[in-house]
Design a protein that fits this description.
heterodimer; A: mainly alpha; Helix Hairpins; about 75% helix; B: Sufe protein. Chain: A; 3-stranded antiparallel β-sheet; 3 strands; about 20% strand
């Protein structure tokens, strides 16, 4: 994958200067915005569209802490595993199942108070998980062999975060008032 | 991408949704997840004399994941454990006409079946050991 940090001219790491991220994105957007290429030759117009798309993708990736962690792991050669989760224990998956069942139950009953309580708890847990993961990512040694154990642990953590985020979506959707 | 009629049918009228007693010795439980999308699937079988007499599932995921597990429970009922082990994800994918991007949903279902069978067999072995010692 291309390096979103390099694209936006930022140092590679979980902790980043958000003001700087927004500023860089704005600056580069002004340079590549297709509106500025309307009167240019077709090849240049296409290039501008391409640059703009890559820029927005990188920006979206870096703005979201969990996706930023994902990008860092992919850059270390540990992208998200495809297919069935082979690393999580059955006990942990059962725990995730029960959490999702609880969320689905509250959603089915349209129990807003319960939904909000669950969502709040989940948001706190997610923020904490992402924060801890970020800290661990920034402390990984540069050497791939030395970092291997840490990278595997970070991958496992990000898997848990994926389950939690999906559960959060369920809760959030259930909280949207129906017409 | 459009879902096939069979996927929509299973999605709108899922068969065998629910839970069996996971502590019961005649029940095998398989729980699998897909880290990429955060989906989780639980599939349970109840076995009597080597034959699956009941199967239930609960899936939190997309339409294809729900349809794959719903179809799997339909196919499992009445099969022997050996016959159940022979179910391949490609059979599920073909029956539901899953597009390539949704093949992993059928893989999830196959893995859930395997885990449920393995869980049941482990329980039976432990029971056999316990009765030998007792």
């Amino acid at each position: 994958m291309s390096d979103p940090f390099a694209l936006l001219g930022l140092p590679r790491g979980f902790r980043l200067d958000e003001t700087e991220l927004h500023r860089r994105h704005l600056e580069l957007s002004l340079r590549w915005h297709p509106d500025r290429f309307v009167l240019r030759p077709a090849a240049e117009r296409l290039q501008a569209e391409d640059e703009m798309a890559r820029l927005n993708q990188a920006y979206g990736l870096l703005r979201d802490p969990a996706r930023r962690a994902e990008a860092l792991l992919a850059l270390r050669g540990a992208p998200a595993g495809e297919g069935t989760d082979a690393t999580s224990s059955p006990e942990f998956l059962m725990e995730m199942m029960e959490l999702k069942e609880e969320a689905a139950e509250a959603a089915a009953e349209r129990d807003r108070a319960r939904l909000q309580e669950l969502l709040c708890g989940l948001n706190v847990k997610l923020a904490q998980e992402v924060e801890e993961l970020g800290g661990a990512l920034d402390e990984l040694p540069g050497d791939p062999v030395e970092a291997a154990t840490g990278v595997a642990a970070a991958r496992a953590r990000l898997t848990e975060i994926a389950y939690l985020r999906k559960t959060r979506e369920t809760l959030e959707r259930a909280l949207i008032p129906r017409a | 991408m459009a879902y096939s009629d069979k996927v929509i049918d299973h999605y709108e009228h899922p068969r065998n949704v629910g839970s069996l007693d996971k502590a019961a010795p005649e029940v095998g439980t398989g729980v699998v997840g897909a880290p990429e999308c955060g989906d989780v699937m639980k599939l349970q079988i109840q076995v009597e004399d080597g034959v699956i007499v009941d199967a239930k599932f609960k899936t939190f995921g997309c339409g294809s994941a729900i349809a794959s597990s719903s179809l799997a429970t339909e196919w499992l009922k009445g099969r022997s454990l050996d016959e159940a082990t022979a179910i391949r994800n490609s059979d599920i994918a073909q029956e539901l006409a899953l597009p390539p991007v949704k093949i992993h949903c059928s893989v999830l279902a196959e893995d859930a079946i395997k885990q449920a069978i393995a869980d049941y067999q482990k329980k039976q072995e432990q029971l056999a050991e316990a009765s030998e010692q007792g």
